[in-house]
Request: fold
Amino acid sequence: MLHVAIVGAGPAGFYTAEALAKRLGTVAIDIIDRLPTPYGLIRAGVAPDHQSIKAVDRRYAAVLAGGVRFVGNVEIGDGGVSIDELTRLYDAVVLATGAPRDRPLGITGEDLPGVMGSAAFVGWYNGHPDFADLDVPLGQAGACVIGNGNVAIDVARLLAKTPGELAASDIARHARSALAASAVRDIHIIGRRGPYQASFTPKEMGELGLLERAQPRVNRADLPDSAGDAALDPGLRKVVGHLRNFAAQPRTDKPVTIDFDFLTRPVAIERHGEALRLIVEATRLDGDVAVGTGVMRSIDCGLVVGCIGYRTAEIPGVPFDTARGRFVNDNGHIAPGLYVTGWARRGPSGTIGTNRPDGGEVAEEIATEISAGRRAGGGGLDALLAARGIRPVTFAGWQAIDAAEIAAATHPAPRDKHVTRAALLAAADGGCAGGTTPL
Reply:
């Protein structure tokens, strides 16, 4: 039997496991993750008020229920299991670790308190254990969100929503409380180019116009001549239509504003008393390229969130493309028996579903190139982990966590997330006898 290890329990990993099972029929697959919980960005990246998107986890649960093993709470790399050890234990190893690290802003002052990337901020409100203790300053009126994609929209929307609007979400309890007491009233979404170059999608843009206490605003001078709208692809045309509608709306008495600052380039971040000041430069377009004009201004704020992209986390022993923020690979091949899929292969682009074709391609390559050997597979991994005192969380352990979070929820919230490793492991152990693999 072929033994395959998939590193990363997010969408890319599950689509690969699903494709392998379909293509090979008989195959032993272990999905390994550093967290005690599966589903990757479905749990920790998708906005908590987008529950319909999170429903795809039912498909992934069916993969685990169908015989694929979940091996959670296991680090691959320093302090855990090395890539060399995995490739000796399994016939094929697939890296599906995504891109969980923030791309730096590259400006002076980005290391100041109150400045953070979207991976950290989104992880904070989604209850990711790495960011549960993040200090998110919400005591100032201003907040700057740098980026012109859907993540920037998510961050701005969550900052602007009322407690009632978040009641049916699975936002982490600490974030729910902090946002309810937030003083943020002036939210700026900052992009160095214009509306035609934005990466928003119509659904996310339309949601901003429905917020109870917040009004999105666009400077009419930033909008291109409407004659060019007809040449846009349908999705971007709808986005620009929303922006034109926001620009046409009179000022309301809603207490929160979301300003789209197009043609604006962040230059530096400075301390300003107890708060921050973002220095920005006006830009102009030379084709699709933003060019600085030398005209500067400042925006007072207490929070700056960079939403300009992500990078894959490096793993010792795996060649890494620093410039592109992903593993070096040739169409998914890294080395004999070692593959990569999803964002770790392509870079952070596309939607959740974009990872599915990648999984199918990797499954076909493994089926064609790898012959079943006499590798120890999951049994060998279990023995190695036991020898090192590492207690992996199984699918049964995750089910116990899931049940505990659902039981703790207050209607209409779907769950009350455990946000520390200690709480997650305690729930995995206490919910059922098979919560963690016994030593």
Q: What stands out?
A: The chain has two domains: 2-100+312-392, 102-309. The two ends are 26 Å apart (CA to CA). DSSP finds 15 helices and 19 strands in the chain.
